Amino acid sequence: MSLSVASARGFADAPVASAASQVAELQDRIRGMQRTRIDSHGLPTSPGVAELLPGGVLRAGAAYSVQESTSLALALLAGPSAAGHWCGVVGLPALGVEAAAAAGVDLDRLVLVPQPGEQWLQVTAALADVVTVVLARPPASLSAAEVARLASRLRQRGSTLVALGDWPQSEATLRVSDDRWMGLGDGHGYLAARRVTVSVTGRTLTGKPRRKQLWLPDSEQAIRPAGLAGVPVALPDRRREAAVS
Amino acid sequence: MTGPVRTLLLWCPDWPTNAVAAEHGLTSDTPIALIDRGEVFACSVTARADGVRRGLRVREAQSPRCTDLVALPYDPVLDHRAFEPVIAAVEQIVPGVQLSRPGTCVMRARGPSRYYGGEQQAAEALLDTLAGLGVRAQVGIADGPFAAGQAAKLRSSSPADAIRIVPAGRSPEFLAPFPVELLDRPDLATLLRRLGIATLGNFAALEPMQVRDRFGPDGVLAHRLASGFDPSDVDARVPPADHSSVLEFEPALDRVDQIAFAFRTAAEEFVARLQSSSLVATAIRIEVSTESGESRSRTWLHPRWFTAGDVLDRVRWQVQGAGLAESGLNSAISKLRVEPESVDPAGSHEAGLYGGATDEHIHSGLSRVQSMVGHTGVLTARISGGRQPSSRRVLVPWGDLPPGGEASVRASRELPWPGRLPGPPPATVFPERQRVAVAAAGGREVVVDDRGELSDVPVQFTPPGRKPGPVAAWAGPWPVTERWWESGGTRLNRFQFVDDAGGAWLLVLDDSGWWAEARYD
């Protein structure tokens, strides 16, 4: 799936694409051919998120690292969840369930283990056996051997880990830089929309980090890629504001 | 036409209150009233002595009559469950028992009186059996269940005359002096009173044809009851198969692993016994009794059906008291009882030829996680109603139903909730709110006065665990006053802040200061 998309785009855009991106596309192809499992495939992702990820898909059996932003991590979960996959969340007692639902995660297929305690690795591995995407906050005291064990478990089961924090050997690291909220003024308005710049670094991405603008979410509570500057921002209207105050 | 059937009726006085007293460990002289829909449904002897009557409101029963009244909700399920051992004991010695309601059962008198050599002897045998269970009962034998019931319920002054026998054919004379209210038809009784007919004997003296013309078919039935020609027969129940599993420990055990190990075989037998009846349990009830006589029980649901391992897990969790305040036992466990609370035909849960239902592996995988972190460690989420993000989040252990059921959560979510914040919901909702500081230009804390006015413009904001920084944007206060009429109510002001790093926060200000409730991260 990812292979065909990558190759099709690679050939179609070949004359105009820069050397760096061409190298990246070719590396993607090589990785696709070297894959040990036949069914190693990409998971469906929502359009805003697909642009961020190397290869344009959330790869099954891989680990991704998201720094700081729970909303961005939930956005990664939304695509697989909407496509009927189960998602698990480990070690996030403060997860805003409503935000998860708003991001597009189906709560009927979401399982939470807020306090795994000492058994973080066992719980995450057991959950990775049955659900497609696991969102987890890794504990600080995780040895390299444990990371490798979980990584091989993920590869074997074909499930994806979204780590909220650092994760060695992650497919890509997503970081929210430049966080701008719209709608809140100096004593008036309310938080209505948020435009962020996500910078992506990854093993397969060479050169400078990839930067993309993203509405997380826009004023309609949808997560979508932000186009060029100058897209009108819907400010909160007076009526809704009056209902609040 | 055959005459009324010779009937033996067994009546346990004050059954509902006695059952509740036993369940809650109250003494028999505690004044108890069971409340059903705001009115007293049943009351104990001591409460009755203080003037509490059926049909009174709770307040009427408490304030002028009986101030130390223990008012508990009426639970018909408990009533039936407590009566089950009694009726099982009766069925051991007399077959063909009909359960009229918890506390009352009816059987034909002919068989037992022949077997025991007389009606008196049969009744004595029954009372002896019940006395062995510690249950006090009264017996009435007459023609037809109605007359037998009236005989049984005659006030007895001593245990010796707990048996009343109305000789065969004498029921009409026996019933004649009773008031018409005993027919349990309030409208008819009022009407008869106004017609000057006060006793069953007077009513029975009317012409049956006239009664039918005036009072209709139900009047005819009442007339036959009053005349001692009760047409109803005893409809014996089929005793349900007992699928429960009981294990007694001698000596009592106090370690979870010992108990779980000992119960392993019993759990397998429990499931196998259900399977042999082509049933699977979807809910079980575990009762744990301790050496000191305490007992705690709880119902466990399963998203699919219980296997032996699942039963064992539930036993372990209940004994450990995983997250359950009420299961705190303080002595060694002497008895464990598991019974199926709801069963399904196994056929509707059959696994398919090519693997089972789509989510089957999810259930088994999550059960494994549950066995690691406990029943309450694996949660599913629902969105409920409320003004604060924390009250809109409902977390339910995997396999359980949310409090009040799914429908009530959905209904609460669909209510309007005026005053809740618009815009995107926060991605991080702190389980316990975090202390923050908000200051004005001079370093003074910003407060909201009684009129809802902000004292100063906030310029400095200290997020939890960080250094103070300038405020980039803010809005508020949005006051919320919930349940102001009771002590647990909330009265607070909400704010949204954006700090200098671009992080957005939902803050609340109440009497104890500024707090971060959630973060839009």
Automatic annotation (TrEMBL), chain A:
Species in which this protein is naturally found: Mycetocola manganoxydans
The protein's name in its UniProt record: Recombinase A
Tree of life domain: Bacteria
UniProtKB/TrEMBL annotation, chain B:
Pfam families, alphabetized: IMS
InterPro entries, per the entry: DNA/RNA_pol_sf, Rev_trsase/Diguanyl_cyclase, SulA_CellDiv_inhibitor, UmuC
Entry's Gene Ontology BP terms: DNA repair
NAD is among the record's keywords: no
Domain UmuC as annotated: residue spans: 25-151
Keywords: DNA damage
Function field: Poorly processive, error-prone DNA polymerase involved in untargeted mutagenesis. Copies undamaged DNA at stalled replication forks, which arise in vivo from mismatched or misaligned primer ends. These misaligned primers can be extended by PolIV. Exhibits no 3'-5' exonuclease (proofreading) activity. May be involved in translesional synthesis, in conjunction with the beta clamp from PolIII.
Entry similarity comment: Belongs to the DNA polymerase type-Y family.
Identification of the protein by name: DNA polymerase Y family protein
